[in-house]
Each structure stands twice: as C-alpha cells, then as structure tokens.
Amino acid sequence: MDAPRPTKMAATDVRLDYFNERIGQTLHVLDGIDMTVTEGELVSIVGPSGCGKSTFLAAVDGLIRVDGGEIKVSGQTVTKPGPDRAMVFQNDSLFPWRTVLQNVMYGLELQQKMPKSAMIDRARGLVELVGLKGFADHYPHELSGGMRQRVNIARALAPDPDLLLLDEPFAALDAQTREFMQAELLKILERTRKTALFITHQIDEAIFLSNRVAVFSARPAKIKEMVTIDLPAARNLTIKHQPRFRDLQEHIWRLIEEESARSGLMATN
Fold first, then answer.
1. What are phi and psi of 257, to 5 degrees?
2. What digits encode the pLDDT tens for the residues 203-250?
3. Rounded to an integer, what distance in angstroms lies between the CA atom of residue 80 and that of residue 67?
4. What DSSP line would sit under 102-143, residue for residue?
5. Three-class SS state of 172
6. Which of 74, 83, 156, 223 has the lowest tally of Cβ within 10 angstroms?
7. What are residue 5's phi and psi, to 5 degrees?
8. How far is residue 111 from each of residues 34, 82, 105, 160, measured CA to CA in Å?
9. Measured distance CA(38)–CA(28) in Å, rounded
10. Three-state SS for 166?
C-alpha cells in the first residue's frame, strides 16, 4: 500500500468579503472554503461566473488577505506572496524587451540564489522542457500565443515553487491550440512532478487535466462537491470521447447549472 502523499495546500474555513466602492456595498465572496491539494495533484476549480474562483486563487498566492480561516502551503500560513508559489495568468505577461531565455530567468534573478551561469543553465533546461528548443533567443512578438504561454509556464517553474497556480492560462488561445496546450501541460507537470491548482470555465478542460475537480457554489462560494476524476492517469485527447468522460462532464455541468439557476446567473460553458 502506497504511503499517503503530503499535503501541499490546505484551506480551512476560508472566508473573504470585498467592499465594492462603486456600489457602496460589501460582497461576500468566499464562505467557508475547505480543501486540500496533495503533492503531485492537479486540482481544478470550476463554478458559475463570478463565484470567486480567481479570488480564491489570489488568496492562495497571498495577493489578497482572507477575512477568516487559514490557507497553508507546505505547512506555512500564507500571509503574502512567496517563492513557494508561482502564478500563471490568462495573458502571458512576458517582458517584450527580454528574450525567451531572459524572461525565464527573471524569477531566478530576483532570488539571487545562484550564479548567473547556473541561472542560464536552468533556464535553458526549462525552455527545452516546454518544447521551445531553438527559440531561447527569440522575443515574445516573434512567438505564437501558445508558445508565449509555454514561456510563461517555464518562467513560473524556474524558481522551483511548491505550488503552481494557473488562472485560466489557455483562455486566450484558439480551440486547437488550447487542446494542444492541455496535453503539453500534463507532460510538463509529469516531468517536473509539480503540484497545481487550476482555474477554468471549461468543464472538459478541468476533467482532462485533473485528479479532482472542486465545484464552487454561487457567491458566496462554498465547495458544492469535490469530484474525483476516476480516469486513467495516462491521458491523451482521445479520452474526451470515452463514455466515462462524458458522464463526468454531464455531472459537473448539472452541478454548475443548479448553482447558476439558484443565483440567477448564466451557467458557464
């Protein structure tokens, strides 16, 4: 029997309110979120539009302080951003004046924990890992959208974070590139053995990538259900046509529809 894997992220009774100055009203965003992510897992979060998915991810990253409860990463309470977490956003946010290699090196330069030669070696290795061998000296404007997001992922991996946070990283890509990047992300995470928390509006994307999918309720968000994705660990895009995949997709869709109807929101697609 395999030993249980250690917990990388633990959220306990996390509550968060947000004062909207425009309408002069306090919005209750998160209402008692309890969830864990174990080492090597990818857990996706889905839910109705505006339910607080990205807000929760920002809280895990330390960009937003919670009003109640606690978030721990690798056993340490999150109070601010730190090198143990790395965020990948929807837009690639690369520095246009830096080459691919220089962009990947950026976090290492900030840490100043290794000599420049070691930074270059690590960055080159990550550029190759994400499938961009031969593009190290290119600039962002010379790359496609999918290639730029690969650079973004490599840059996030460079400081060797304990937890990778991905906030709809493929939303700006066309459908074909998006599916390709899903498969590539699985390969990258398998090779690096990283733990990840992934936000998406696409149910099929969540199922394809994840070990588990957390379905958030309408705001104020709670976890309506944590769905275990009981599909083979080794996945390719053909798995999306299997009956069990479609069953999981329909089940999660119904959960979100229930919350959307309850709150009067349009269901995600």
1. -60, -40
2. 999 999 999 999 999 989 999 999 999 999 888 889 999 999 999 999
3. 14
4. HHHHHHHHHHT-S-HHHHHHHHHHHHHHTT-TT-TT--GGGS
5. coil
6. 83
7. -80, 145
8. 32, 11, 10, 11
9. 28
10. strand
Give the single-character DSSP code of 46: E
Tokens at residue 1, please?
A: 């029997």
pTM above threshold 0.70: yes
Whether 45 contacts 56, CB under 8 Å: yes
Q: Is 79 left (phi over 0), alpha (psi -120 to 50) or beta?
A: alpha
Fill in the DSSP letter of residue 240. G
Q: What is the DSSP annotation of 60-101?
A: HHTSS--SEEEEEETTEE-SS--TTEEEE-SS----TTS-HH
Q: How far is CA 105 from CA 118, 143, 161, in A?
A: 10, 18, 14
Domains contained in the chain, CATH given: 1-82+197-269 (3.40.50.300)
Which strand (E) or helix (H) includes residue 192? Answer: helix 175-192
CA 60, CA 243: separation in Å to the nearest integer?
A: 34
Whole-number Å distance between alpha carbons of 161 and 8:
11
Looking at residue 200, the DSSP 8-state letter turns out to be -
Give the type of residue at 13: D
Q: In what order do the strands lie in the sheet with 85-88?
A: 85-88, 163-167, 195-199, 42-46, 212-216, 223-228
Q: What does the pLDDT look like over 38-76, one tens digit per residue?
A: 999 999 999 998 899 999 999 999 999 999 999 999 999
For residue 134, give the amino acid letter. Answer: G
